[in-house]
């Protein structure tokens, strides 16, 4: 990884932590769109995992009601696991540019929901019916794009949970998703040793950002900072929607056979045969030069 890419990664991880510490917006939601610009989608998904687990895990153990949330939403959480496996498999099969564009759409939808805060209500009967399919879809989109917010956030918002319970339920979902994603990316070969090491080191600027954001919160207007952050995420999301991967090198070599150079041997050509062909070519060049003079 080049120094410029490393700087982008560290800055993105720190800034995402700063946003989470100041406004409470999800860590991966902010970090991945920033990192994609520097290292691409697959690498960004791998790098953000350990920082996300560290920042969200701290919230889980510092908040109460963990067992209540786990028992209520176990169907949703259970659906996340196979969903991520399916999404990661799809990531290895589809074009990375298409997955990046989907991430852009998800980011923009999240921004609209966060700004408008629509009045949604989900009846208790539908809560159980939709829990498993919603978890499966959430896991699939997580495995495909790295984004953990859809349909998690609309689902939890529609249940009208108390603030502390909603925070705990969302953080438990994203932490579980991050752990499962780590295993899934390792098994798919996307998480390399280098990316894992960078992810572990990346927890440092992430936690520093969370701490700085928590410290700055009393001195800033969280609503104004949140509005600016959502606006920035909306711009990044729009850019990702219009993202097109760099053009692949010309495929002329796959369409027409390459001209063979006499100065290089064929793969199946023996050394004596190559020397004889080279001598014939040199003699032919000499005769051509004599004819021209």
Strand content: under 5%
The proportion of residues forming helix, as a percent range, comes to over 70%
Task: Supply Rg.
Answer: 26 Å
Note poorly predicted spans: 246-265
Order of helices and strands: HHHHHHHHHHHHHH
Q: How would the global form be characterised? A: globular
Tally of individual domains: 2
Count of runs of 4 or more consecutive helical residues: 14
Mean pLDDT: 78
Span between termini: 56 Å
Total count of strands? 0
The SS-based structural class is mainly alpha
- Main sheet properties: none
Task: Characterise the protein shown here.
This protein is mainly α and 293 residues long. The chain folds into two domains: 3-241, no CATH class; 253-292. Helix content is 78%, strand content 0%.
Task: Produce the secondary structure layout.
Layout: H1 3-23, H2 27-39, H3 41-47, H4 49-62, H5 66-72, H6 74-93, H7 96-116, H8 124-145, H9 152-158, H10 163-188, H11 193-216, H12 222-241, H13 252-255, H14 271-292
Helix pairs in contact: 1-2, 1-11, 2-3, 4-10, 4-11, 6-8, 6-10, 7-12, 9-10
């Amino acid at each position: 990884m080049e120094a410029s890419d490393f700087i982008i990664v560290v800055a993105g991880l720190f800034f995402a932590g700063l946003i989470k510490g100041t406004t409470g917006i999800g860590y991966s939601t902010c970090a991945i769109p920033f990192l994609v610009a520097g290292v691409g989608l697959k690498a960004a998904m791998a790098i953000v995992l350990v920082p996300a687990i560290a920042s969200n895990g701290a919230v889980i153990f510092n908040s109460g009601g963990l067992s209540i949330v786990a028992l209520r939403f176990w169907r949703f959480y259970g659906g996340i696991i196979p969903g991520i496996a399916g999404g990661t498999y799809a990531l290895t099969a589809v074009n990375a540019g298409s997955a990046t564009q989907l991430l852009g759409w998800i980011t923009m939808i999240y921004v609209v929901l966060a700004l408008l805060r629509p009045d949604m209500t989900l009846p208790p009967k539908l809560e159980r019916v939709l829990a498993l399919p919603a978890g499966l879809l959430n896991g699939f989109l997580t495995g495909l794009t790295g984004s953990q917010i859809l349909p998690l956030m609309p689902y939890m918002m529609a249940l009208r949970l108390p603030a502390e319970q909603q925070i705990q339920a969302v953080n438990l979902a994203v932490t579980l998703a991050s752990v499962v994603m780590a295993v899934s990316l390792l098994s798919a070969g996307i998480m390399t040793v280098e990316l894992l090491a960078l992810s572990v080191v990346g927890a440092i600027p992430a936690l520093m950002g969370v701490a700085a954001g928590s410290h700055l919160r009393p001195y800033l207007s969280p609503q104004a900072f949140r509005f600016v952050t959502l606006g920035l995420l909306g711009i990044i999301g729009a850019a990702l929607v219009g993202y097109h991967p760099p053009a692949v090198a010309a495929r002329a070599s796959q369409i027409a056979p390459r001209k063979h150079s006499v100065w290089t041997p064929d793969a199946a050509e023996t050394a004596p045969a190559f020397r004889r062909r080279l001598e014939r070519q040199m003699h032919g060049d000499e005769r051509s030069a004599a004819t021209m003079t």
